[in-house]
Amino acid sequence: MSPTIAIVSGVTLLTIVGIESGGAFLLRTLRRSSGFTDLQRSFFRAGHAHAGVLVILGLTVLLLLDAVGVNATLQWSGVGVLASAILLPAGFFLSVLGPHASKPGPLVGLIWAGAAVLALSLVVAAVAIVVAGVAGLA
């Protein structure tokens, strides 16, 4: 594993502590009967779920890219997946801030940006892994 990918992976593992703290916050919010709208509860739940799943997916993509020997430039597509693990949840959380939010605010665009980064990163990573696999057959 390249030193850069090792560092990125280690730092990413530390972010799971933050996701865990977010889970504790989510449990507290869901137990309250007042203070948050249904939209806020739904968006908080979606943000937390996306963060956890995308961090694990990002780490898996990094390991796959490294395992098949993809060059260092294309390995950054795994970092793109990890970037989507920031953008998507940020959009869910930040777009419903404020008291009595009844519709998402302008920061909902972060969800779309995160989805685009995720799709592009996964396509690049998938093609790089397939190409490395085909090259290994020769």
UniProtKB/TrEMBL annotation:
Classify the source by domain of life.
Answer: Bacteria
- Tell me what organism the protein belongs to: Leucobacter komagatae
Which taxonomic lineage is given here? Bacteria, Bacillati, Actinomycetota, Actinomycetes, Micrococcales
- Enumerate the transmembrane spans: 6-27, 48-70, 76-97, 109-135
Stated name of the protein = Membrane protein
> What does the UniProt keyword field contain?
Membrane, Transmembrane, Transmembrane helix
